[in-house]
Amino acid sequence: MVNAEIGVIGGSGFYSFLEDVSEVQVETPYGPPSDSLYVGELAGRSVAFLPRHGRSHTVPPHRINYRANLWALRSVGVRQVLGPCAVGGLRAEYGPGTLLVPDQLVDRTQSRVQTYFDGVPLPDGSVPNVVHPTFADPYCPVGRSVAVAAARGRDWEPVDGGTMVVVEGPRFSTRAESRWYASAGWSVIGMTGHPEAVLARELGLCYTSMALVTDLDAGAETGEGVSHTEVLRVFGENVGRLREVLFDAVAALPPTATRDCLCTHALDGWDLGIELP
Ligand SMILES: [Zn+2]
Q1: pLDDT band at 124 (very low <50, low <70, confident <90, very high)
Q2: Cβ atoms of 87 and 214 closer than 8 Å
Q3: Catalytic (active site) residue 260
Q4: 140 Cα to the center of ligand 1, angstroms
Q5: Which residues, chain by chain, have CB under 5 Å from ion ligand 1?
Q6: 3 phi and psi, to 5 degrees?
Q7: How confident is residue 253, by pLDDT bands cut at 50, 70 and 90?
Q8: 268 is known as an active-site residue
Q9: pTM to 2 decimals?
Q10: Of the residues 35, 107, 215, 248, which is catalytic?
Q11: Geometric angle at alpha carbon 124, from 121 and 128, rounded to 5°
């Protein structure tokens, strides 16, 4: 029986994490996750890595099976998740290479299932009840402070806090949309940070987003607009140090048994109707 305590979900340009890994295929009531889980050891911690778009980047943001991904991680024992992702900067000062650890998100997605508690029976016949988890603070406060400290430890001063707006994609924003998001005071824009965060919360998982800015979004730059080639180029330049920061963050996350953050209490008092894995 494979067991892991920490999950890392890698985004665009980030398709592997550890070298010596066991590939584990996990079935879920929601179908298959984006890929196998790749489980390995790091600093005495057991880590499951999942490439969010599949190892060959075949799954676009709006078709990712977010429910299967988080369920699969929890089913092997994961209780804390680090979610690095590529984002666009909405302010000129958040240029390529900026690392931002958001403390808020805005959901502008349109077509994604963002709950496990929808009354639809699972294959085992159990029926999830209606549940309204607290989501005022969508990210784990402990995971956030660990991520910020890990970046500082690698001489990469991160932006500590900020709002990630998550859009449906797969297209990039128009200039008008981008200027609107920026004028609302939001910091960065991505396509995958939601419903990943809320589904983690619904499973009682600690979830920490680590947003690497690969470009200035259309409203914050004056050139040709964002291209995917440029996103991958900048991500590639930074993926090495992002991996090092993640290594340090994994090592510094608290042991599962000692967690007492708000994420662990998200489901207190609710009758779920289903067994979480
Ligand atoms: Zn937490």
Answers
A1: very high
A2: yes
A3: no
A4: 4
A5: 140, 206, 261, 263
A6: -135, 135
A7: very high
A8: no
A9: 0.95
A10: 215
A11: 35
Residue of higher predicted confidence among 36 and 58: 36
Q: Half-sphere exposure of 16 toward its Cβ, with a 13 Å CA cutoff?
A: 8
Where is 170: in which H helix or E strand? none
Matching residue, tokens 């690392």: 99
Q: Specify whether the CB–CB gap between 87 and 99 falls below 8 A.
A: no
Distance from the alpha carbon of residue 206 to the mean position of ligand 1, in angstroms: 4
The structure tokens listed for 155 are 């001489």
Q: In 36-53, which positions are buried (b, 16+ CB within 10 angstroms) versus exposed (e)?
A: bbbbbebeebbbbbbbbb
> Which residues, other chains included, contact 173 with Cβ-Cβ below 8 Å and sequence gap of 6+?
88, 167, 181, 189, 217, 218, 219, 226
Q: Do 90 and 177 touch, CB atoms closer than 8 A?
A: no
The CA distance from 106 to 114, in Å, is 13
